[in-house]
Amino acid sequence: MEFFQADAQLVPEEQNPYDAFSMINIVTDIGACEALWRKFSPCRSLYDLWEFRFPFWEEYRYELAFVVLSQDENAQGLLPLWKHPTQKNYLWFGDVGDEFNWQEDNTIWVSDPSCVRALIDGAPRPLQLTSLRPEAIPLLNDCGEVRAMNAKSVVALPEGFTLEKFISGLTSANFRHMIRRDLRRVEECHPDKRIDDPRAFDSFLALNTHEFADSPFADARLAATFRRLVLDTRPRPFTVRTISVEIGGDIVGTYCTFAYGQTSFALLYGGDKHRCPGIGHYMNLSAIEDALATGKNTVDFAETDPGTAKERLLPSVPQWMFTSQ
């Protein structure tokens, strides 16, 4: 069966065939949830992969609530949720509720757009669905509150793309000067760039928690989740690659990236800007350079806080949040 990602208009409510003849089930068994996920997921993004989300369940074990809409005993839609134990709201499966929104590129998985309302109406409350793709919004506007959230940063790498062209294309001359200055600062320290250094993940954790007072990786469960994701050597649909910069025998910057399809997802960053001023911009551009070298056509840097230098450097893609009480 082909499943849509909710990018069409709902039919008028009085014509909706799912209102009167549908059935909602809440599935809580992890094995059954996996089977449903694999049936419905479009697998077009890293975040659509069971192998990316399952490690979050292994560490957090929140109460599962996969909402299934069926008609004539045939599953027509899936809303994969779990319940946050202290916030008491229902989130995307894998969203740990720490405001960093680790699960992005979300859509509504239905066989027909006309069953979206029945699926949403049958979901438990309160409901909070973050990091929605723009095409999901038209089908949710009448089901609850929809509002914009922080955008994500995505860099397209078309044929002929170079870092110099990218920097030259920045609109602010002062910002272009700052980026080039930061690159020179790091290069003057004679950096040793290493791919897949065995120290990379531990260095990332140390750098991230030292640099950011609100680092989510102070939570041992999140650190353990990504340790599983980065270091697991079993075959998976995505691959992991680390980029580390060593200066004077110490790692001063690390990116952990996840490659799926033609996209490199640069999710985990740690850097020592005090010892190595400019390392943030240097590492962002290194992630782009590495994606080019490995034949990717997109780098997804995930959600970006507004007003940061990273937001100024990288193009933005809007994201949305849906809530219903």
**What is the H/E string?**
HEHHEEEEHEEHHEHHEEEHEHE
Assign a percent range to the helix content: 25-40%
Compute the CA-based radius of gyration.
21 Å
What's the CATH topology label of the largest domain? Aminopeptidase
The largest β sheet comes out as: 8 strands, mixed
CATH class of the largest domain: Alpha Beta
Give the domain tally: 2
Average pLDDT value?
93
**Architecture of the largest domain, according to CATH?**
3-Layer(aba) Sandwich
What fraction of the residues are assigned to beta strands by DSSP?
25-35%
Backbone shape: globular
Number of helices: 10
Find the CATH superfamily of the largest domain.
Gcn5-related N-acetyltransferase (GNAT)
Question: Structural class from helices and strands?
Answer: alpha+beta
**Strand tally:** 13
Task: State the low-pLDDT regions, or none.
Answer: 1-15
**What order do the strands of the largest sheet run in, or round the barrel if closed?**
6-13-7-12-11-10-9-8
- Give the termini separation: 32 Å
How would you describe this structure to a colleague?
The protein has 325 residues and is α+β, with helices and mostly antiparallel strands. The strands form two sheets. The protein has an eight-stranded mixed beta sheet with strand order 6-13-7-12-11-10-9-8, with helices on both faces. Strands 1, 2, 3, 4 and 5 form a five-stranded antiparallel beta sheet that branches. The chain contains ten helices and 13 strands. It folds into two domains: 13-150, Aminopeptidase (3-Layer(aba) Sandwich); 158-296, 3-Layer(aba) Sandwich (Aminopeptidase). It starts with 17 loop residues before the first helix and ends with a strand. It has helices spanning 18-21, 30-40, 50-60, 116-121, 163-168, 173-187, 200-211, 220-231, 279-293, 309-313, and strands spanning 22-27, 63-71, 74-83, 90-92, 109-110, 127-132, 145-156, 192-195, 239-247, 250-260, 263-271, 298-303, 316-324.
